[in-house]
Task: inverse folding
């Protein structure tokens, strides 16, 4: 009687075991994998397995996670990026930004770009008012662009954008706000100086009608960003700065939904109510005076000069 | 001259800092968050931030991750679950399964259910052939269902399903294979015995035309599952077992794409070519003899009796 037992395959890879599961998975990567992808996936699998081992999810909890990711994916369209919102609200976007913008002492800190930047805003001369509809509490923003030794940088480009007093960007209210309302591009003068007129920005919620909004709700968190003015400041030979300045009196200052606030980015906003100062300003009513200097770090040697930054 | 500086908000939460970023994020959870959600999210944020800090992704790499997750979400439909495939191929599904099925010594180990289970397959008497189209190398699968002391369990339900020799389940080839081809439900007899006829299963690829397939390609991995027969074995008062038995000679045995193979689940497949044995079997050609016992663990006291398992 013939009964042939087939050879069990020579063992080329380890079988799955709960202990060391991350190594079983990572051992499968082929020899041709790019070194950077190998490094990234090794870390992803390691921390993913560590998280699962710490959480010990039930099958239902695992399925809830699958469902959450699927709904987050289904919420994404050309004009809505729910995974970026997820990254923002879990502090990952700020963390990636921080890691990539460790500045030499004294340079203005970065914060996130946000989804409302529009290239090619109008170029204005010093002192122009970027508020095109006359709504809101007037402000005058004024300062200098300097290097880390405090020397003026002439001809720096200052690209600015912000919400109106209702907490909306022009692009969110097409037909309600004039196009390019509260956006403008300025250049620093020979002394590195810039100034412009605007209004005080207001806090606003990130889109919270999707899975990320539901997550924030379940975590007892609100969706509001602390009020801020966005800036991109660039000058040849210097690292660009993408940043905000925050109003110090916003109720959400210490609890910005996307963790964008850094202490060094809280602006010096002063209310001017003195009749003489008001008359001198030509504004005709009380206004906010904001003083803000940008300090740029020289590009590291060997950096591509002035590559597009966005 | 009056210039009033507004009060900076009292600091209720810490500002974002690269160091300790995970604590800044977790500190935002409200007091009413369910203890389990708090535990889960604390671990998720901790390991997510640890991964980002280890990887130090560039902005482009972060954006590639956002894009990958978005595409994975967009691939999901009612009949395709790309995030489950992602979980499977990163070993997470097996890890969750292992965590939830730590068995007392000697009980048959679990492995993943997979997407091809169909409830309410035909009930057959012992010895029935579940291969309805006569294709493939015949097999006889035979064994016992016993408790951890080796005592027979009578009336256990053995639900079985597998691919045909082309590596497809019936539900993947509607109109090509007969409905319920290679599926059946059996009961163990008074001695705990069961047996049925079938064919040798073949390896098959998981769906690899989506982002997960692309990921596997970039990692130098193939999408193939090692050949297996699926079983769900249940008996009143015992923990159900969801498992496979694997053929020992499959070229993918040690590199199952979803890490489903456990050493204890490799079957005892013997080729029978002896004319007398062939005649006795009534099969009329050489066949595979598979011996397989299922050992069930008694339910822990207090467990819901016989709750639905799927
Ligand atoms: Cu970790
Ligand atoms: Fe903004
Ligand atoms: Fe299968």
Result:
């Amino acid at each position: 009687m013939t009964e042939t037992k087939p050879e069990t395959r020579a063992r080329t890879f380890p079988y799955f075991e709960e202990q060391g599961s991350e190594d079983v998975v990572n051992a499968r990567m082929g020899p041709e994998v790019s070194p950077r992808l190998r490094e990234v996936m090794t870390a992803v699998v390691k921390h993913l397995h560590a998280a699962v081992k710490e959480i010990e999810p039930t099958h239902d909890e695992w399925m809830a996670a699958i469902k959450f990711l699927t709904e987050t994916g289904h919420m994404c369209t050309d004009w809505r990026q729910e995974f970026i919102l997820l990254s923002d609200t879990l502090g990952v976007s700020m963390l990636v930004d921080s890691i990539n913008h460790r500045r030499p002492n004294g340079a203005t800190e970065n914060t996130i770009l946000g989804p409302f930047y529009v290239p090619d805003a109008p170029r204005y001369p010093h002192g122009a008012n970027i508020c095109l509809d006359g709504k809101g509490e007037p402000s005058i923003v004024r300062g200098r662009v300097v290097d880390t030794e405090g020397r003026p940088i002439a001809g720096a480009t200052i690209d600015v954008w912000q919400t109106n007093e209702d907490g909306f960007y022009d692009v969110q209210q097409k037909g309600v706000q004039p196009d390019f309302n509260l956006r403008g591009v300025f250049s620093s003068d020979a002394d590195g100086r810039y100034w412009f007129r605007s209004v005080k920005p207001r806090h606003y919620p990130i889109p919270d009608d999707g899975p990320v909004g539901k997550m924030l709700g379940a975590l007892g968190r609100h969706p509001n960003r602390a009020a801020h003015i966005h800036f991109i400041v660039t000058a040849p030979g210097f690292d660009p700065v993408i940043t905000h300045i925050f109003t110090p009196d916003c109720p959400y200052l210490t609890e910005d939904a996307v963790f964008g606030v850094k202490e060094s980015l809280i602006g010096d906003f002063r209310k001017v109510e003195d009749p003489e100062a008001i008359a001198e300003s030509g504004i005709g009513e009380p206004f906010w005076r904001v003083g803000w200097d940008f300090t740029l770090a020289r590009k590291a040697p060997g950096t591509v000069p002035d590559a597009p930054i966005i």
User: Anything to note?
Assistant: DSSP finds seven helices and twelve strands in chain B. Residues 253 and 261 of chain B are 7 Å apart (CA to CA). The pocket of fe (iii) ion (ligand 3) is lined by residues B 114, 116, 225, 228, 230 (CB under 6 Å).
